[in-house]
Design goal:
Elements: E1 14-16, E2 22-28, E3 33-34, H1 40-43, E4 50-54, E5 58-62, E6 70-73
Antiparallel strand pairs: 1-2, 1-6, 2-3, 2-4, 4-5
């Protein structure tokens, strides 16, 4: 999945939502990337999209990027 600016979503990315809250991408199902805390075996059934651990909403699955979701920092 890509953000609205065209960057591919990657595990560890810090994102910001239109309401100003932040989150971290913990799974990118399409690329097969999963963080240690959220292993493939538990989340690959979703088939597409990303999982974001949001500071205000908790764990959220996105099939496509939310309008206003922007990459603010890429984990190296």
């Amino acid at each position: 999945m890509n953000y609205s600016d065209g960057n591919e979503a990657r595990v560890g990315d810090r994102v910001q939502f239109s309401d100003g809250s932040n989150g971290i991408v913990v799974c990118s199902i399409e690329t097969g990337e999963y963080s240690e805390e959220y292993p493939r075996e538990e989340w690959e059934y979703l088939k597409e999209g990303i999982m974001v651990n949001s500071e205000t909403m908790g764990l959220v699955h996105y099939n496509e990027p939310e309008l206003g979701m922007v990459l603010i920092e890429r984990h190296k």
